[in-house]
Amino acid sequence: MYSSTVTQFEEPPRKKSPEEIAAEPIPLPPQSAEQPLIWRNVIAIAVLHTVAVYSFATRYHEAQLWTWLWSPFYGLSAGLGITAGAHRLWAHRSYSAKTPLRIFLAMLYCMGGQTCLFKWIRDHRTHHRYTETPADPHDANRGFFFSHVGWLMMRRHPAVKAHGSKVDMSDILADPVIQFADKYYTPIMLFLCFVFPTLVPVYVWGETWTVSILAVTIRYVWLLNATFLVNSFAHMWGNRPYNSHVKPTENPTVSFFTLGEGWHNYHHSFPWDYKAAELGAYGLNPTTGFIELMAWFGLAYNLKTPSKEIVKKISLTKGDGTDSFWGNHYHDTHHSSGERRSIQSR
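Structure tokens predicted for Stearoyl-CoA desaturase 5 (346 residues):
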């Protein structure tokens, strides 16, 4: 059972392993640099979004009921490959997974049609290590549009390349599942992300080719933007009950669209927690429920989480004094202001 494999950190690790990326970002001075636009990406992103929005607005009524069920189901499944796989398992090593689960998560990830696993994980580790600095691939200090999608439309800042290349990726290079998935990423991704989900509606329940193709396009764009929300919205709007020294916030709206990845102030405070939130598998964190279900089946183990005492101490010391919207309120009004001042003065 998963409950027997949860590991609580009574004290923060003295020397963090590669997966337990530092909660406090490394400060870097502002650096101006030329970042030419990648016009191929600009045009592709613009066309994709135009087609998806126009198609949904004008042809939604043409899709059969099974297509309406199939596309969200496929998108949510692909989302789990990103949240439970690329993010919580591989980028942060917040839990361990047996080979069948790792293969399954890698397949789900490829269904999302994003970049190869190695690049995604390296970017995310770089983001945590250098949050809101020139080395952050999607630095929120540069505005909503840049952190949401603009960073994909231009050449990378030299600081991203310089510091990202120093991120320890030895564990990823040693993972045979990731190495296989990345070696054959293009054909696997094209089939799982675009070909297979188009064929199923056409040949199983007789959907038209046009509607099936457009449904795949809409689902693809929707999942991209759901992922982008964590980089933009969750770094700008919300409260910071765990650590007011960093920009990421608690944003329940983002959590709704991202399977639980919007509790971002907590996540940047305790990046090694498999829950990525203070509470467990509640309504706005289905990824945690999935991980715990896999643990119940014996496929996931060593689920890491900080102790309640550590969460309380960090919240009282660094938090902005507000309650976590869905959290356990260790730092709320039942803690006197005197206790907060006492802890902060230590």
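The CA atoms of residues 12 and 284 lie 27 Å apart.
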